[in-house]
Amino acid sequence: MLLNVIIALLVWAGDPSPDIPLHYNQTTVQDADLANIRDQLKEADRLIDQGKVIEARQLITKSRREADSLGLKNAEKDLLLSYSVLYLAEQKYDSAMTATQQGLRMDLEDSLEVKYLNQLGTILRFQSDYVESLKAYNRAYNLAKELNDKDYTIGILQNMAVSYKGIGQLDRSIQHFTEALSYAREVQDTTLLIVVTNNIGDTYNDMEEFDKASVYLKESSELAALKGYQSDLLRVTTNLAISQSGLKRYEQALGLYQNALELSEEVRPGIPPFQIEYNLGQLYLEWGMPDSASKYFNASLEACLKYGIGQGIYYNNLGLAELSKNKGNNEMALLYLEDAYDLARESGSLNDIKESSGLLYELHKLMGDNSKALTYFEEKEQAEDSLSAISTQQAVAETEARLELVRQQTINERLEAEKAKQDAVLANQQVIIIAGAVIVLLIIAGMIYVIRSDRKVAKINRELRKQKEKLELASKEKDRLFAIIAHDMRSPLTSLQGFIYLLQSSELTKEEIDEITSELEISVQKNLNLMKDLLTWAKDQMAGLKIFLRDVDLRVVSDDVLQSNRFISNKKEICVTNNIPGETYLRADYDALEIILRNLMVNAIKFTPKGGKISLNLEQSNGSAVVSVSDTGIGIPEELREDIFEKFDGSRKGTQGEKGSGFGLNLSQQLAKKMGGRIYFESEVGKGSTFYIELRSAGH
Question: 26 falls in which pLDDT band (50, 70, 90)?
Fold first, then answer.
């Protein structure tokens, strides 16, 4: 894939249409001063777009001082937004977010609220929080459409398209860019058309649909040349070269890259054209000219290292790795890929992690290192799972936004209907205005009706809000639970899939098979435990779990639990002692008691270090039996104790990095209560924990 992600994708967010007139109760002089401040802030925004951040900061500071000296409190909203844009350009994301949130808490006119919401989405997008950024952009988009502000609607649509691009939903990205293009053609703005057609062509390049990309990029190139916009022409020429390279038209692509180098020297004098150099390296690599490819890859890498351009370093390492692999130098290719993988992990880019771990998996497999190959295979699968989860979250977010819009429309329709009724009442009152006494009675009746109607509408709104909050809470809890369970259940299956693939594609030694099998056995056992918990919880949620109390031999149940988890405890060399006497009977449900003991035993093993101890004990008195599971583990921190039985949003990792859903203790407490008992615990950090199950003895 060519390095089009390094190109600074030009998302047009130019000057919006003039603000709605503000009805300030101030003098004409103050209004003129405020207009002057706003003109200065717009100039600061243009300086930021040109990369002149220091000059922009000086102008914003000057504007703030002038506003303070003139007592222009109304300028604070505009100043906060300009500071947010400045902080974002300086990569001070926390400061940008603080300024934006402070502005959103103010009483904003609609046109300014659109700008703040768009800025909020952009800050979140720069932090790779694409799901939340799309929520903010959706709010800005709906408000801009209500205001019929087509210019700003185009900018927001392009920002949304970039966010979809960030989570790999290129079809949705094209959809939003195309809608922006439709608006741009409608307003007949050449500058907008240059930007939007270039963005569409760039996205089609990412989708490897190079014929379609060429159509849009040629239109953008012609318009940019016509207007004499050299910076835009540089971006478009580079993207068009990428399209031609993708179509295997290497000579045409080379000519375009040479034009781009000349434009770069004109537009960006003194700045190394690292992106074009990378693309030339990729072109020569595909063209079968390894020496030329190496020359340009290394030149681009040197510039990226000098200026700290992480994405450039990442992609040049991938290019050099492929070049080394083609030459048969797998060791050198491995070094380049490991550097790229480390950069991907550092940046947190799921797409880069997926790509680099996949390449490392293939290379280790080729070099015969099956253990490391399996590790990177699982890493690639986890990145794919996370990307899929983000896509699902976005779908949910969009659905919620649409439902919220429908709800607001429904409320507005009801209010309009009530208003129509009230208007009808007032019209009828005017007909009999000459009858004084009757008029008075009708007015009173009308007032009572209005008050009741308002109360009725308010009551409906309150009920709708309560129902919405309950449904949202229930939906979020359900989604979070199943997301956790789906992830935990997938891990052993992914490992098994990788193991089978390795068995089919390469020869494993007996030691490698034994090592991988032991890990799979632990993983599958954890999966079976989770399945049992999930089925029990599902029965309880759907029809109410039936508890059948009878006399249960505690020693038999505890022995079964220890036996099912013996392989896991032996793996960590943990000494497990069952001090419960034989033929000790409790009044309990056998299955429920087994689930509780299993969950407590699994947690004890998870949080006990290698070589530790776990013991099961029993105390009986006055018809009550208290079963305890004690360990010499790491203990429970104070801040986690209060909600330990309440939440199931993922537990902390064990002493050897074991993962869990956090679901077991919640389910165990519910089952204990259904049997008329309870679970409680004692813990000391660094020394261990003891969990107690209090139930009735047999015969009580």
Answer: very low
Q: How many residues can be counted in the chain?
A: 700
How many Å is the Cα radius of gyration of the chain?
Answer: 33
Residue 228's Cβ-count burial label (10 Å; 0-12, 13-18, 19+) is: exposed
Cα–Cα distance for residue pair 137/163, rounded to 1 Å: 9
CB distance 272 to 264 below 8 Å: no
384 versus 26: which is more confidently predicted? 384
Q: Is the pLDDT of residue 485 over 60?
A: no
Task: Name 316's Cβ contacts closer than 8 Å, sequence gap at least 6.
Answer: 278, 281, 297, 298, 300, 301, 304
3-class secondary-structure state, position 620? strand
- Count CB neighbours of 373 within 10 A: 23
Contact (Cβ atoms closer than 8 angstroms) between residue 343 and residue 310: yes
Spatial distance between the Cα atoms of 524 and 517, rounded to a whole number of angstroms = 10
Q: At what angle do helices 190-206 and 150-166 cross, to 10 degrees?
A: 10
What's the token pair of residue 195?
A: 């930007």
pLDDT, tens only, 102-123: 989 988 888 889 999 999 999 9
The vertex-236 CA angle with 230 and 241, nearest 5°, equals 125
Residues 6+ positions from 253 with CB-CB distance below 8 Å: 241, 242, 244, 245, 283
In the structure encoding, which two tokens stand for residue 88, read together? 């974002």
Q: What pLDDT does 241 receive?
A: 93
Q: Please report the DSSP string for 361-413 in residue order.
A: HHHHHHHT-HHHHHHHHHHHHHHHHHHHHHHHHHHHHHHHHHHHHHHHHHHHH
Phi/psi of residue 565, nearest 5 degrees: -110, 10
Find out whether 34 and 63 touch, Cβ atoms under 8 Å: no
Q: Are 311 and 278 in contact (CB under 8 A)?
A: no
| Rounded alpha-carbon distances, angstroms, from residue 382 to 359, 386, 562 | 15, 6, 31
* 532 closest CA partner among 694, 676, 663: 663
3-class DSSP state for residue 188? Answer: coil
297, 320 contact by CB (below 8 A):
yes
Look at residues 23, 39, 118, 50 and name the one whose alpha carbon lies nearest to residue 78. Answer: 39
For residue 577, give the amino acid letter. Answer: T
From CA 262, how far away is CA 256, in angstroms rounded? 10
- pTM score, two decimals? 0.49
| Assigned token pair, 488 | 């935990």
